[in-house]
Description:
The protein has one domain: Transposase IS200-like (Alpha-Beta Plaits, 2-Layer Sandwich). The chain is built from 3 helices and 4 strands; from the N terminus they run βαββαβα. The chain has helices at residues 30-45, 73-92, 111-127; strands spanning 14-19, 49-56, 60-67, 104-107. β2 and β3 (60-67) form a beta hairpin. α1 (30-45) runs antiparallel to α2. The longest helix is centred in the middle third of the chain and has 20 residues, at 73-92.
Amino acid sequence: MSKLPHRTGPGRTYFISSATWERPELFRVPKVAEIVVQRILASRDRGAFQLHEFVVMPNHFHLLLTPGETTSLEKAVQLIKGGSSHEIHKETGNHVEIWQVRFHDWMIRDGEDYRTKVRYIQMNPVQKRLVERPEDWPFGSACGKFVMDPVPEKFKS
C-alpha cells in the first residue's frame, strides 16, 4: 500500500500534529523539549514556513503553519523531526527512535477553523493538566516569549 501524498499548495495553512515513537514522554525533560522548540523556530527562521502557533507537549507537538513557496508540507515536518532527532541524539548520547514516521495534517478552511486550532494549541497543556494557564507552559507560543508570524490575511475577521 502506498503512502497518500499530503496536499500542499501555495499559501495554504495547516494544523500539524506528530507524536513520539510508541508515545513515551520524551519531552518531559525540559532540555529535550527545548531542542524541539529550537528546531521548530530555526526551520521557520530559515524560511521553510511561517509559524503561527505551536506547542511541544510531553509526547507530541502541534503546529499551525504555512509552508514557504518552495517547501512542501512533508519537507517542513521533516526539517523539524529529522533535525530535532539528530540534536537529541547528539545531546543525550541515546539513539532511541524519537518520532512516529507519519504526521497528521488538517488544511485550515476559514477564520473560524483557524481560531479553533489556535485555541486547541494554546489550551493543550491546560487540558492535560500540565499548567493552569496557557501562558505558563514554556514550550509553546502561548507563553509569549517567541515571535510568531501573523495570522494570514484570509483568516482575519
